[in-house]
Amino acid sequence: MTAPLITLEGIEGVGKSTHLAGVQQYLQRCGVSVVTTREPGGPPLSEAVRGLLLSTDYPAMHADTELLLMFAARAEHLRHTIEPLRAQGTWVLCDRFTDSTYAYQGGGRGIPLARIQTLEDWVQGPLRPDLTLWLDAEVSTALQRTQKRAAADRFEQETLAFFARVQAAYQQRAHAEPHRIIRIDANLPLAQVQAQIISCLSQRFPALA
Ligand code: T5A
Hints:
Order of helices and strands: EHEHHEHHEHHEH
Distance between the termini: 20 Å
Number of strands: 5
Mean pLDDT: 96
Bound molecules: P1-(5'-adenosyl)P5-(5'-thymidyl)pentaphosphate
Oligomer: single chain
Strand order of the largest sheet: 2-3-1-4-5
Largest sheet: 5 strands, parallel
Number of domains: 1
Structural class: alpha/beta
Radius of gyration: 16 Å
CATH topology: Rossmann fold
CATH superfamily: P-loop containing nucleotide triphosphate hydrolases
CATH class: Alpha Beta
């Protein structure tokens, strides 16, 4: 049987990367074979596309170009990393996936959702995450956590209004798919966020406990 794909979603600074490591450790303690990865990124070509997408060298990148590059990176990631791992029974934990595309290119850039859905169906076929943990924090709180970094990437240079639209798009998706997308309150201290995540995983996969 194909192993689960679990994704972490949310705007910049909500703690996705931080909690990815914690979730991996928890699953490993439960005896699960698990690999972590990220989007855009994963295999070398997808990481190269990530470099293009995040670079501030292309401030005028067209929204359609951005969308197509996201799905080009995803096609490579799925074929070379995610699908083979799951087929051999390894769980995949991914920092962002297609919900990010709906939130950023759909909500943030205003690309019609039907266009994104066409690409999703083409690139992914029926594949969707088994579980998505949506780390939800106030936009101002989350962005403040990222401000200690030396340089902002192309997305981090966006306006507050952009991130508010991204956040609203995540809310709509969580509302539309409550069984798959579980909201985690990421305003709380790290330990409490981690506890919510573990509780959610043990409910969703009772065999782990
Ligand atoms: N993108 C991606 C699209 O537009 N479309 C797509 O389809 C895809 C897949 C990727 C960019 O690409 C865009 C979205 C993104 O802009 P990225 O760097 O991979 O960029 O993703 P980011 O969200 O930018 O990564 P961040 O590192 O900024 O956010 P994280 O991973 O959510 O946050 P994390 O874990 O690094 O934490 C940030 C800081 O906050 C602290 C942490 O310790 C850390 O210092 N922190 C907390 N502090 C207190 N309390 C808590 N609860 C905390 N949680 C975290």
